[in-house]
């Protein structure tokens, strides 16, 4: 890589660090400054990867403390914790709540309760414990950790896979339900990390859960013929044989997929021109009925636009697979977008431009995107490719 390209990546990194830290609030990590100026579980827990490599342990602990405090009596971790009403906040109108308010499902009346907040909570606390050495936190919050695990186990079905309702994942304007790859990979990683972060007695139970889910994901999701994991299995057992980048990339990022399977996934991305920056979510979109409802409610938000954090995750995946040229390309092309706008945007259109519609505008200084770019940069440095 030329020195000019390396310099561009270095400059983008400094912007990402500033953007990430600008979202550090009094109680935790905000998702963003405008559209999502709330404490979102998935945004803040993914952003924690960046905070941890920076050594910002205090804010990660505060964020974990916040979500632990608002954990439900059944063990459910909130989707988000609001200081203001989120819906009108998207329009730039700030109406504060009287007190902090926790929500456990998306606002749409048909949506199911969010699932990924629990495994992401367990992943974040495990990474925090392992990197900071703060095992006292685990001891102090053992009851909450075990409740969070138990809540997830209650979502397993007869296939030994975690199940969810409509709009319950991060892509919350895609109409799918049942067993979703993204969610099940997260749960597998959560149990796998807990085996390392918890005391032996509790870790042994997590090991059983890890092996149980590991077999089911391989059995039901992997397509030997196509060379990727299917996106989801519907509520009634219909396998939706769509390629979605999120779960497939996370299978490599979280070290679930073998090297050979990871290589086939990245080959599919390359051969089908999905190596745009950032990598788009779907190949040929969803089936017609899912696309119909998605377009009717919030056209193209999840299905046609791209989310910059997946570009950073893709770069890490390529490094893990020793695709150094591809990893550098991903980081460089993503860095150009960051420098173009002077910030790490949450979302861009297929041409890499900010989304600017009447109802929705790209969130700038996205903590999830900034945190993942920060992590990817450090990972690349550690592996000696920058």
Q: Beta-strand level of the residues, as a percent range?
A: 5-15%
Order of helices and strands: HEHHEHEHHHEHHEEEEHHHEHHEH
Mean pLDDT: 92
Terminal CA distance reads 8 Å
Poorly predicted ranges (pLDDT <50, ≥5 residues)? none
Task: Describe this protein's structure.
This protein has 386 residues and is mainly alpha-helical. It has a single domain (3-382), classed as Glycosyltransferase. Helix content is 53%, strand content 8%. Strands 1-2-3 form a three-stranded antiparallel β-sheet. The chain has a three-stranded antiparallel β-sheet with strand order 4-7-8. β5 (222-223) and β6 (228-229) form a beta hairpin. The longest helix has 22 residues, at 200-221. The chain is globular. The chain starts with a helix and ends with a helix.
Secondary-structure topology with pairs:
Elements: H1 3-22, E1 39-40, H2 41-53, H3 57-69, E2 80-84, H4 86-89, E3 96-103, H5 117-132, H6 135-140, H7 142-153, E4 179-180, H8 181-197, H9 200-221, E5 222-223, E6 228-229, E7 232-233, E8 239-240, H10 245-253, H11 259-271, H12 288-298, E9 306-307, H13 308-320, H14 324-341, E10 347-348, H15 367-382
Antiparallel strand pairs: 1-2, 2-3, 4-7, 5-6, 7-8, 9-10
Helix pairs in contact: 1-14, 1-15, 2-3, 2-5, 2-15, 3-5, 5-7, 5-8, 8-9, 8-10, 10-11, 10-13, 13-14, 13-15
């Amino acid at each position: 890589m030329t020195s000019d390209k390396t310099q561009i990546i270095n400059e983008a990194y400094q912007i990402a660090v500033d953007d990430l830290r600008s979202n550090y609030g009094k109680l935790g990590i905000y998702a963003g400054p405008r559209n999502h100026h709330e404490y979102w579980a998935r945004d803040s827990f993914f952003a924690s990867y960046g905070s941890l490599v920076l050594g910002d342990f205090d804010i990660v602990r505060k964020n974990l403390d916040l979500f632990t405090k608002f954990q439900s009596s059944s063990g459910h971790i909130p989707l988000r914790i609001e200081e203001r009403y989120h819906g009108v906040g998207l329009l730039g109108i700030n109406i504060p709540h009287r007190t902090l308010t926790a929500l456990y499902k998306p606002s749409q009346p048909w949506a199911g309760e969010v699932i990924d907040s629990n495994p992401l909570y367990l992943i974040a606390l495990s990474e925090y414990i392992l990197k900071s050495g703060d095992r006292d936190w685990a001891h102090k919050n053992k009851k909450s950790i075990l409740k969070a695990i138990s809540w997830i186990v209650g979502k397993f079905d007869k296939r030994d896979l975690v199940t969810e309702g409509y709009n319950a994942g991060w892509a919350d304007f895609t109409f799918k339900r049942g067993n979703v790859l993204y969610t099940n990979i997260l749960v597998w990683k959560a149990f796998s990390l807990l085996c390392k972060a918890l005391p032996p007695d509790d870790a042994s139970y997590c090991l059983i859960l890890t092996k149980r889910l590991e077999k089911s994901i391989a059995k039901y999701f992997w397509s030997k013929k196509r060379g990727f994991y299917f996106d989801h299995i519907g509520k009634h057992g219909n396998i939706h044989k769509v390629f979605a980048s999120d779960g497939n990339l996370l299978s490599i990022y979280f070290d679930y997929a073998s090297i050979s399977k990871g290589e086939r996934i990245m080959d599919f991305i390359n051969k089908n021109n999905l190596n745009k920056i950032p990598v788009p979510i779907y190949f040929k979109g969803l089936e017609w009925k899912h696309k119909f409802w998605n377009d009717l409610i919030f056209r193209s938000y999840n299905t046609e636009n791209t989310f910059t954090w997946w570009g950073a995750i893709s770069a890490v995946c390529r490094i893990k697979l020793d695709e150094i040229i591809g990893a550098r390309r991903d980081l460089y092309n993503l860095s150009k977008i960051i420098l173009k706008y002077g910030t790490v945007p949450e979302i861009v259109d297929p041409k890499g431009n900010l989304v600017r519609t009447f109802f929705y505008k790209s969130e700038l200084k996205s903590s999830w995107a900034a945190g993942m770019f920060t992590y990817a940069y450090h990972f690349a440095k550690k592996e000696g490719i920058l």
